[in-house]
Amino acid sequence: MEENMQLLTNHIGYHINSEKRAVLMAQQSQHELASAFLVDAHNDEIVLELSPIGGANVDNWHQGVFFTLDFSQWTEQGHYYLRYQAVRSQSFEIAESQLYNRCFSDIIHYFKSQRCGGEFDAADKQASIVAAKIRWMSMVVGMTRLVMSASTLATCPMPTI
């Protein structure tokens, strides 16, 4: 049965103070659940014992039965993996700012590639928006910010009520 199990974790990692959950996927419900373990990846030392929770099917999923492993109480920075019987997860990191550190540059690249370059950028610069002048001010937190000058706003007609 163990060869049909998988431990699924967040491949980005987990923030020290956030919720930390993983999924144990089994082909069928387990009548007697063994403990799962959070293991330090550097020395293979068990740092936390976990009890699988649930054991439910998910509508329209045909992969089996899913259990939750919650290790949110663990707040030590480091590299870890989960183990359930002979099944082991991929290693992951628990640290500060995981989402920012691992994804920010990819997100910025995505936004730039989708709108801030090439033919789209040239077309956007030619667009007129209700006679307002638009100018590029700066990159703020990696996203381009459009600022309308106060003089242009003053010339826009105000709606009457």
Q: What integer is the average pLDDT? A: 76
Secondary structure class reads alpha+beta
CATH architecture of the largest domain: Sandwich
CATH topology of the largest domain: Immunoglobulin-like
Report the span from N to C terminus: 71 Å
CATH class of the largest domain: Mainly Beta
> Mind describing the biggest β-sheet?
6 strands, mixed
The string of secondary-structure elements, in order, is EEEEEEEEEEHHEEH
Report the β-strand fraction as a percent range. 35-45%
InterPro entries: 6hp_glycosidase-like_sf (IPR012341), Cellulase_Ig-like (IPR004197), Ig-like_fold (IPR013783), Ig_E-set (IPR014756)
GO molecular function, one term: beta-glucosidase activity
Family: Belongs to the glycosyl hydrolase 9 (cellulase E) family.
EC number: 3.2.1.21
